[in-house]
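Hi P.,

Sorry for the delay on this. The queue was packed all week, but I finally got your sequence through. Input first:
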Amino acid sequence: MTRTLSFLMVLTLALTACGSGKEAASRAALQKEADIGAIEQIEVTWHKASSTHDVNLMMTIWADDATATLGGETYSGKAQIRDFFANKAAPFRPENHWVSETPAYKIRVTVDGDKGTLYFECHYVDINTKQVVAVVSADQDVARINGKWLITRLVSATPALGG
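Then the structure:
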């Protein structure tokens, strides 16, 4: 009887351990999906900010010590990045009435713990002419900082056709 009881206890512990392993894997998969969704929101915020000329909104997706290489020039820290969007970026110029969008198939996200990457293309369409006036790519490193996913490094370029 003691052997049977011991066997049942060991079996119960083994099954519990297997179940908790599955639960942990399930939680990890759910967390990864949540992180991917949160990283993708950076792209959503980017396009909302550039379509509405909202520099303050744009700055909510940047880490304090981020770097951005835009138009061949590198800007370091939020103050320099803000100055670029406020004074140099074509989508934010008052005379430009553009809508910014990204084809869904041109978004790529990776996540590994508290770090990840985000790539998307910005297709800027002039509201008046309904023509694409600019296409720019944004290749970014992102990180979870104080619970929020933010851009830590961005390199922008003109994407190759067909990509």
